[in-house]
Amino acid sequence: MDEYDSASINKGCFVHKPEKVKSKKSGGNEILPLVKEHVESLWSEIETKIKDIEMKIYIETFVNGIVNFINDSFQPSLQKIQEIPAAVLVMGVNMPDHSHIFNLLEKHLHLNDIYSTVILESKKCTSVPNMLQVILFEIHKKYKEFFKLSEDLPKKQEYGFAKLYEYYCSIQVASPKKKAKNILDKTQHAPKPIVLLIQDVESFNPEILQKLIYLCKIYSGKLPIVLIFGMASSMLTLHSILPPKAICCLGLETFHSVPATKYLTRIIEEVIISPDLPFKFGPKMFRLIVDSVLYHDFSVSNLTYMLKFSMIEHLYGKTYASLCCHESEIEEKVNQLSPKCLQALKELPSLKTMRDDFNTSDDILGRSKPQPLFGKCTQRQHFW
């Protein structure tokens, strides 16, 4: 018999009691609770600055141009031209913020007394009846919100441009009891246009777009309709999607959104390295944010989220995070710190250089001598 025939394998299971895990000392750097109010106030200041920059850039590049285009489209000299006023907004191929841009554009149109606005998305407009339902529902919603109207919507089977025309005419001649006086004057003397914002043209079914254009053409003499096409690529894409018969119905004008590089430059100059804001990013985080925007997604919204998460991650769990404030508030913030917070602050590597320069260990952050901290703000302003 071969020696391998009598071989056997024995399995054994040996249990060992695990050793006790010794708790590691933090070395003086205590995990302190989040100063929620301070972080929220700091981020609110940064977010407000970003939104102001965003609105200024969009207004400078295309928003004012589109508003003027809409207002000029129904001048008496142009009403004889049997074309549907249509603007093409080119927003960029790799920018995922198209919906955000259209929401800002709609908000700005409302500020200019253009309330009949409807944002059409391909996922909600899978057929012509669905699209007509969205148009009538959104216009009814806007009139109810801005004009305080109480008219009921027609039945679902009656959705169409004929009902839209009847509803629009009823709004124009509504009784003063149903509207405020200033709104009545606006609608009676200057009927506002109906603006259809088609957000993602490339994703729409071409047949649905064609039927929408033909319907708008039929009612162009009755309803003041303006179309705004949101394009990711270029004007040539619209010509490839729609046939010449549909293109001939449109009076086209092209507008371009701001490039991501220009927006990022403004954010860097006025937020990230601005001496007016106390929170600053280190070189590694700064490079990560820039690379992520320029070489990944070109997203304005994601840039805002990265700034927010970076700030929260840096300030989380540190009571002395309240020192990230304006120079005029530093002395007050230092006097509010507890002895434990001061000790934890002195343990930070970033303050070792300052402690060596002042040749002291305790007085640099003492309550009676917070003046050396002011020098840090001066250094920060000169650096940036």
TrEMBL record:
GO terms for cellular component: DNA replication preinitiation complex; nuclear origin of replication recognition complex; nuclear pre-replicative complex. InterPro entries: ORC3, ORC3_N. Residues 7-320 form the Origin recognition complex subunit 3 N-terminal domain. One of its GO terms (biological process) is DNA replication initiation. GO terms for molecular function: DNA replication origin binding. This is Origin recognition complex subunit 3. It comes from Araneus ventricosus (Orbweaver spider). The gene is Orc3_1.
